[in-house]
Write the structure tokens for this entry.
Amino acid sequence: MTTHPADRSPTHPRSQPPATPEAGPLLRVAGLTRSFGATSALDDVSLEIRTNEFFALLGPSGCGKTTLLRVIAGFEQPDSGSVLLGDADLLALPPHRRPVNLMFQSYALFPHLSVERNVAYGLEREGVAKNEVRRRVGEVLDTVGLTALARRRPSQLSGGQRQRVALARAIVKRPQLLLLDEPLSALDRKVRAEMQLELKRLQHEVGITFVVVTHDQEEAMSMADRIAVLAGGRVQQVATPQALYERPANLFVADFVGTSNIFAGDAAAGGVHTRWGLLPGTAEIDPGAGAAHVMVRPEHVRLVDVDRAILGGQVIDTQFYGGTSTVAIEIDGRDEPVLHTHPGMAPVRRGDVVHLAWDQAHGVVLAS
Ligand code: ATP
């Protein structure tokens, strides 16, 4: 029988401490570079992950997320850079000696073993005493809510239940760091939403630092304490979900995270000078910096009277979502409609002429 890599991390000698957030960095990645031929999968990646943090790596397909996880787990060697876990140089250790576990997208469960045997497998291979294996497997199955299904085989489980088995197997060995590669991607929408909550609860309960890879920004925002946004192998921004959303560091993050209205022009005092006049915003960049964009979220765009308007246009669509409506407004000289989110039902209809404004504090000026 082959050993799955997820089963090879060493056993932590003691129980984990309760999940209290600690400020210090657990993992320090610095100047990590990895190329595959002409493709730069990781390009000078540096970031720090804190103890007991739920950390997400977010970015579009091919941005280097999986490569970064694989380097941390030891299945890939970087061309240069360092990876420290506490004071230990992880790159000097083979995968099975790293106190890190990687949970694969495919779960990679053994089909012929029961749930409890799947979970016990890694501990048994390490020669952990039978009683201890039984106790720990029992505890973990209880934590993930699978005690009643312990005797079933993977084929007799739903997708969400299989996911829990994979999680149980990953946490039973108490790694210091659990890496999860797109852990929810195989699940349908409803189960996925449940498992987002579940993963968060679990991370808190077991007190293990989680690093989750996802290309789904809503998923990252709903689960993570902090998120690193990657694009083209480079870190674009590391921040809390709220900071990413409210103060994106650049155009890529502004566009990738959440829905946004973005206007191009030139940086000016109080915002960005565009073909529609000065659109208000605040900036860290110099008003004389040249080409710039201003970004405003749909919920900050307001319908106003004409005398207070900074933009005007015609409603081309309204969509009602229950709690909110989204109104799409066509503006002369712009390809994409401006989006406005309204609480409840929007008081406008397709064809109406409307006037729009936002507060300067809600416009984010970004260098081009
Ligand atoms: P996805 O969300 O699609 O899994 P990702 O962000 O995880 O993407 P990676 O799998 O890290 O991206 O890949 C980053 C880049 O490196 C991609 O362009 C990919 O094609 C390339 N790459 C990754 N592994 C290899 C490899 N073994 N050989 C050649 N190219 C590779």
